[in-house]
Each structure stands twice: as structure tokens, then as C-alpha cells.
């Protein structure tokens, strides 16, 4: 069966009038840049073209519920953009769209709620902002590039009531702003005022919040180590060969001081990361 025949069959089964099928199928094929494969047998398609075909098979005819799994994997930007546009229009018309992906950030423009899966079960589910607030430190992280030495705490106290200095070096300061009345608009407004009134001291600044991908990976890392998931995977195949080191062997290992916790954003060595 060719690409066109498969999509035309699905379109008819989903109730598209026969006199509209050809136009509808060609519109979708052109949108995802499959026009060179319109009459190609499906078994002769490359994997990335098969992924596009699966996407079209899911959305053509606009079913009430659409489930997609890793549909943007290895697709070029123009194709991903077309996919997101189709999903956005379906959502606006009231269709339920469920996306499964290991890359959360890329689907944010068409997502309003997120479920984090761990070990086959839903670990947490909520609106994006609520998930970020629940699984990260409060407030906003501000990194300021300074021109000259200054009493940072005194300078920030004129603009913010509650903040913590995470890290400071010669030209950079990392601060966690904790004022409860802030949103993105307000914190940018205050930082613009701070920079304008201290232009001889402040060169530039960056404001960030914990990205959802970071939270997702942190949860997987923490829960995986606590549940012993990594151990169970290895012992399943190498149970007879794995041997635990003796206490004497462990005592000979050189200990390293634990300075930073890489699963906590505010504990990262900012002065190293941002200093050029």
C-alpha cells in the first residue's frame, strides 16, 4: 500500500466525504514534506518518513483523542513546526492530544499539563507551573555581571525584600530572589530599574527558573537511585559476575569532597560556568 492509499483509507473510515479526501490527504502530505513519497510503498520508506506517516495517520480526520509517541524524533525544524501547528489547531478545536516524549522542553508550546512517568506509573501530574513550583526551590535565579566591586546585599535590598546569595566571585553574583509577589514581568521590571540606576556597576544580568527538563531528569535520578533500579537492571544479566568490593578495598579509595549537588540548580558552581 502506498502513502496516499493508506491515508485516504483512514480518512474515509473517519468520515471525511469522498469528494474531499484527495484534497485533504494532499494537504497533509505537503505540510509534512512527504510529496516526494506520495505514491511510494510504505515498506520502502526510511524510518523518519515512517514517523511522519504515523503522525498523519493519527491526526487525519481529526479524531477526538490523539495519542503520539516521540513523533518529532530526528525530524527537521520545518517538519516539527508543521506538526506543532497541526496539534495546536486541533487543541483549539477541543480535541484531546496526548504526547509521549523523553524531551519535555520541545513540546512546551503545545502542552498545558504534564505527567511524569517513572517505572511504569505516573509519578506526578499537573499544570507545568505547578510542577515546577512543587519540585524546585522557590523564586527566580538571577546572575548579575558586575563591572566593579559592590556590596551586593545592600544593592539588592533596595529592590527586593527576600533573597539569598548563592555564589559570588570577582565579576559575577548568583542570587535566589524569593519575594512572593513576583512574576516574570515584575522581576524583569525591577532588574531593569536596578541596572539603570546602577549602570556604572551592573554590566548585564540573566534571570532563570528551573527548567522542567531539569526537574524531570532530577526526579528520575533521585527515584532511580533510591529504588535500586539501576542495580536491578545489571544484576538481571550479570548476577553471577558482579562482586562487591571488600571493606579493605573501599578504604584504599581516595575520598573526594562533595562540593556541589548537580541535581540542585542553585548549588551549581555558577562562577565557573558563567565566567568567561
UniProtKB/TrEMBL annotation:
What name goes with this protein?
Answer: Uncharacterized protein
A GO CC annotation given for this chain: membrane
The record, for InterPro entries, names: ABCA, P-loop_NTPase
The terms under GO molecular function for this entry are: ABC-type transporter activity; lipid transporter activity
Q: Which organism is it from?
A: Pieris macdunnoughi
- What PANTHER family is this protein classified in? ABC TRANSPORTER DOMAIN-CONTAINING PROTEIN-RELATED (PTHR19229:SF250), ATP-BINDING CASSETTE TRANSPORTER SUBFAMILY A ABCA (PTHR19229)
Q: Which SUPFAM superfamilies match?
A: P-loop containing nucleoside triphosphate hydrolases
